[in-house]
Design brief:
Layout lengths: L1 E7 L3 H12 L6 E8 L5 H8 L4 E5 L4 H15 L4 E4 L4 E2 L4 H11 L4 E8 L5 E3 L2 E4 L4 E4 H4 L8 E4 L7 E4 H7 L12 H11 L4 E11 L5 H8 L2 H9 L7 H11 L5 H18 L1
Parallel strand pairs: 1-2, 1-4, 2-3, 6-12
Antiparallel strand pairs: 4-11, 5-12, 6-7, 6-11, 8-9, 10-12
C-alpha cells in the first residue's frame, strides 16, 4: 500500500487544492497522511470538515519539514506501507499522476521514483532531475542535456527533492529516515536520497508523470525577491534559507569525495554568498 505524507503549516488553500487533486486520481489504492505542524489558519478545521478520509497528525509548530515528514513516515510504516510518497502541499496532481508514478514504481520496485515538476499555468519544466558532479562543482540538469525527443520515460539522477517522491520501505530499512537533527528543513531530501543512492538504490525522474507546482510559493523564493540585508542573512543562516551555509557544509562533508572537498566548499560558499544578489 502506498501512503502519501504531506507536511503542512498554514496555507490551507494550497492544502485543500492538493487534496482535491488527489481525490480525483484514476488510481485510488493509496492513503494520505497530513502532518499539521501547528497551523493557525483553520487548516485543522478544514481537514476535519472536508477531508475526513485523511489521517491527520499534529505538531506544535517546532517540527519543520524534516521532523514532520519523519513523523508521517513512521506512522505510514507502522500501518503497513510498502511505499511512502513525500509530497508538498503546494502541488497539484493531474488525474493519472498516481497511476503513472505507481506504474514506474511497480516496474522498478527497489528504486526511488521522483516526479517531473512543471509550473502550474505555464507548463514550463521547473525541475527535471540532476546529477552531482563533485569534480567540477556543478549539478548537471537533465533538461539541459536531454534532446527534446527524450523528455519522456525514466531518467537516472543522483538525488531528488521530496516534492513528489516514491520511496520503497526497504530504503528506510537500510538507510533510516531523513536527518531531522542535522538538517531540520532544507537539504534533508537531497541528503537522504543521495545517501540512498550511495547505498545502492537507483533514483529516477519520471518524465511521464508531471506534477504541477508553484515555484514562487517557496519560502526561499520570498527571501530571494526581497534583496535586503536581513533577507540575505536569513537566506544564508535562517532555517528557511535555501542558501543556508550550515546545511550545505553538512551535506558536502558527508558526501563529497575528499579529493574534491576544498574546491567544492570554496565554490559552494562563493555561489551562496554572491548568488543571492545576482539571481
Amino acid at each position: 500500500m502506498l501512503y502519501i505524507v504531506i507536511p503542512v503549516f498554514n496555507r490551507k488553500e494550497f492544502t485543500k487544492e492538493c487534496l482535491l487533486s488527489l481525490q480525483q486520481q484514476s488510481r485510488k489504492d493509496f492513503k494520505t497522511i497530513i502532518v499539521d505542524d501547528g497551523s493557525t489558519d483553520g487548516t485543522a478545521e478544514m481537514l476535519a470538515d472536508e477531508f475526513p478520509e485523511v489521517l491527520v497528525m499534529k505538531g506544535h509548530g517546532d517540527l519543520w519539514w524534516t521532523a514532520s515528514i519523519n513523523m508521517g513516515i513512521r506512522e505510514a510504516l507502522r500501518l503497513g506501507a510498502d511505499r511512502v510518497m513525500t509530497l508538498n502541499n503546494d502541488t497539484l496532481a493531474p488525474t493519472q499522476w498516481i497511476e503513472k508514478m505507481m506504474k514506474a514504481s511497480e516496474e522498478l520496485p527497489s528504486a526511488l521514483i521522483g516526479a517531473l515538476n512543471v509550473e502550474n499555468g505555464s507548463g514550463k519544466i521547473h525541475y527535471g532531475g540532476e546529477k552531482i558532479n563533485w569534480n567540477v562543482y556543478t549539478n548537471t540538469k537533465l533538461i539541459d542535456e536531454l534532446p527534446t525527443d527524450q523528455l519522456q520515460g525514466l531518467h537516472l539522477v543522483t538525488h531528488f527533492p521530496g516534492r513528489g517522491l516514491i520511496i520503497p520501505k526497504e530504503v528506510f530499512d537500510k538507510v533510516g529516515l531523513f536527518d531531522q537533527e542535522g538538517l531540520p528543513h532544507y537539504y534533508a531530501d537531497y541528503e537522504f536520497t543521495y545517501r540512498a543512492n550511495a547505498a545502492g538504490f537507483k533514483i529516477y525522474c519520471n518524465y511521464d508523470a508531471p506534477l504541477l507546482t508553484y515555484p514562487e510559493a517557496s519560502g526561499d523564493q520570498a527571501l530571494r525577491k526581497r534583496k535586503t540585508f536581513s533577507a540575505y542573512w536569513d537566506h544564508l543562516f535562517g532555517i528557511r534559507g535555501g542558501g543556508n551555509l550550515r546545511n550545505f557544509t553538512r551535506f558536502t562533508l558527508r558526501h563529497c569525495p575528499k579529493k574534491y572537498l576544498p574546491r567544492y566548499i570554496v565554490e559552494g560558499y562563493s555561489r551562496r554568498l554572491l548568488g543571492y544578489w545576482i539571481s
